[in-house]
Amino acid sequence: MNELQETIKKMLASGKGILAADASTPTMTKRFEKAAIESTEETRRQFRQLLVTTSDLEKYIGGIILFDETIRQRLDSGKSFPEHVVSRGILPGIKVDEGTEPFVGSENEKVTKGLAGLAEGIPTPECIQANAEVLAEYASESQAKGLVPIPEPEVLMDGTHTLKRCEEVTIGTLLAVFKSLKTKGVELEGMILKTNMVLPGKESGQAVSAQEIAQSTIRALRSSVPTQVPAIVFLSGGQEAKLATERLNEICKVADVPWELGFSFERALEGPAMEVWQGKPENTDVAQKALLHRAKMNSLARKGEYKKELENE
């Protein structure tokens, strides 16, 4: 347990966060297509090499979650990705989610990954429970192997649901997850919770401020997350990069919470770099600068020190 706790402290020390470089091959292919990049094993390796070789990344990133494909690849230098990441003083992790499968008895729900859709009656308690049990099993097995588990219950932005509805479902989801974690005997002091910010659905048309999102998110966490959990990191969930940073900043400005609050972003960190890279080696430097800038902005947000005017520096 001491080793797990030290790992958590190192990963989130000094305003650092986690880079989720763990998009699955189908997801990465979709992102590449939007950026007009051909998705092959080699282009995916090149992009992730770009990420992990960015100068000074270790100033703002304490951990990198890698995809299974990446774990098995090597950089141009001959080092494996985990070896290189460790040499930078960054802790490597691996995504073990193998996707989703239909939830028996429901046409609209899936097990293991997320809760897609918040219309009335969805998600069902049965589906939430099934997902919670999978996360608890993963966390238990991880700790048994001396690894820090990062269970990731995510309420998606897809849909027309309101901010209030998202808060309700987030609370219900997290309560179910922690009940299952307790049943499995998971040591809460040796894990990190990765979850969504409370947000209205993308198709809701509801306009809410970063302050309102922060209030709803903190309210949901206080209603559902035990104080023994040392840290909570937020996923970006498809939010625009600067917007995710602004909202993270407002959440982290809230005082008197028992957890370290931080970030574990994928698109909100990688997205700008991918857009400017375009699969062209000559764009590597500018892409790395884009990544480092976003990492720095989110590190500031973790401290509640982010300001929009800093984006132009």
Lay out the secondary structure.
Elements: H1 2-11, E1 17-21, H2 25-34, H3 41-52, E2 61-66, H4 68-71, H5 81-87, E3 91-94, E4 101-102, E5 110-111, H6 125-144, H7 163-183, E6 192-195, H8 210-224, E7 231-234, H9 241-252, E8 260-265, H10 267-277, H11 284-302
Parallel strand pairs: 1-2, 1-8, 2-3, 6-7, 7-8
Antiparallel strand pairs: 4-5
Helix pairs in contact: 6-7, 7-8, 8-9, 9-10, 9-11, 10-11
Q: Would you mind describing this structure in some detail?
A:
- This protein has 11 helices and 8 strands.
- It is an alpha/beta fold and 313 residues long.
- It has a single domain (2-312), classed as Aldolase class I (TIM Barrel, Alpha-Beta Barrel), CATH 3.20.20.70.
- The protein has a 6-stranded parallel sheet, with helices on both faces. It has a two-stranded antiparallel sheet with strand order 4-5.
- β4 (101-102) and β5 form a beta hairpin.
